[in-house]
Design brief:
The structure holds 2 protein chains of 2 kinds.
Chain A: H1 22-33, H2 37-58, H3 63-79, H4 90-106, H5 116-119, H6 135-147, H7 150-161, H8 166-173, H9 177-196, H10 201-204
Helix pairs in contact in A: 1-2, 2-3, 2-4, 3-4, 4-8, 7-9, 8-9
Chain B: H1 2-13, H2 19-28, H3 30-48, H4 57-67, H5 79-82, H6 96-113, H7 123-127, E1 146-148, H8 159-166, H9 177-183, H10 188-199, E2 222-229, H11 243-253, H12 260-280, E3 283-291, E4 297-299, E5 304-309, E6 315-321, E7 327-329, E8 334-341, E9 350-355, E10 358-359
Antiparallel strand pairs in B: 1-8, 2-3, 3-8, 4-7, 5-6, 5-9, 9-10
Helix pairs in contact in B: 1-3, 2-3, 6-10, 11-12
Classes of the chains: A mainly alpha, B alpha+beta.
Chain lengths: ~200, ~375
Amino acid sequence: VNAIKPLAMAGNPAPSGPSNQHGDDHAVVARLRQGDGAAFALLMDRHGARLHAMLLHLAHGDHDLAAEFTQEAFVRAFTNLDQFAGASSFYTWLYRLARNRALDLLARKKPLARDPATLGGEAASDVPGADLASAELRGEVRRALGELPLEQREILLLREFDGLDYAEIASALGIAEGTVKSRLNRARAALRDRLAGRVSAEDLA
Amino acid sequence: MIADLDAQADAFLDGDLTTGEVQALTAADPTGWAGAVARARARRAALRGLARPGLPDALRERILAAAQPGRAGQPGAPAAETLVAPAPARRPMPWWAYAVPTALAATAALAVLMPHDPPGGGPGARSEAPALAKREVAPGAERKITEVSSTAAAEPMRPAADATAQAAPRAFAPAPAEELAAAGAATDHEVVAMLAERAGLERASALAPAAPAAASVAPGPIGLQLAWVPAPRPGTASARDAGIASTELDAVAAPAPAGAEKTRADQRLAKEAEAVEDADAGRDLLVTLRNETVSDLRIAPGGIRLVGVGRDGGAVWRTTLRAAVETMVPAGRSLSWIQPLAIIPPGVARLRLEVDGQQSTEIAP
């Protein structure tokens, strides 16, 4: 049993979360506060693609909306930089800025039928474990994910796609860690239910 | 049983099961348990393997231009100037601070929305376009948007639009009440009253009678107008609500039960939560679409965009207005609403409206 300790499993989030860059990000933010313009570009290069990808999936693959949310988050971060106290990671703060506008809009926007090609089915080769899932399964999971309520979709993406831990998700969403766990459990159950109708247990296993 | 095992497998991968619990599950159904764990892994791998497109270069450049108008390598303000983070845009002000901008904005709205005599027409002609004393929030309208509208079945403000109006007699016909209601109709007086309410003035007559119009109008079948309006006073009916974010952020702001260090960390988190809320403070824009054609104008969700133009004339920022709903403006009518803008990037030198390929003229932020 000890040989299959869960923390050693491929099913856990990628270790590329913001924690690794947490301290370094704060140093970059300090440089930006001191007037180093290049620091802003550096922060964008570190977190821009990640935030954009997250928002793209949250927005059902709507590239225009994802771009809008991404831009607004960075501009808000820049203009409110003096209020970033450093208690959370820069990325979770950035995400929180983005979700204010995103959730407001996405909660009432009907998802559009997206051509799967607009999102791509390819796994990121640098994400550990991503190649374990076939392209077909990823497609089904993406479709099932799109059917989930926004709140469940968001927390699943933050945990599995973005690789945040409970504390980081709690910070990003402004909720308690216990709430993160219960919300995540509900989201996982909902995803399983939706996948059960379209993917056989054998296909998944 | 499979569902239970799947749930247990997810709990196991989250590290929420003890060794004893895992041993019990394995002993009870070795094959089933192994399958459940494999399925849970596959689901997670599929989520992790979703596409991760990079940040588009154009978007990256737009963000840099919007946030840092004078960044190194670009003509413009020196970097030190552009890197000063401005104070939050809105703070409570005394009532008299609203009077002048209120007067300007209300007069602009009057100039734009007031019914004019149609060409060759007199009082009789004007009566064909009655203003309906009705104001509604359009179903599905975005949060924080207050719908107001005016019958704009009137003489267009520019000669270029006169021909359209003269060739479109239907545009001057009174529309059915339901149609106007759908567009969120209101009288001009209501618009003024609403603006006065937002500014905290007791009477709309306190507004100045004349001022240069700050709105912009583009010639063409759709009249596009932008004007700044004063922010609502705290406590007024049209004041913006705090929304989901602040509600959930309350949990973050709550003090921790034990540990001074944890409390200090929570205080820092709370401060950041406030920063997120401050980021929502902004300015309000009166947006007006005038349909100067003989047929109803339907704009698909995402078809109305506010574009920020940088100092070099290029678009550096764009945001979609009414992105979640279809916008309908009956023939010969106008639709106005107050659009809160949470933020205007420092790199934006001018703002314009774009609808179906048409652009308004630009106003200063």
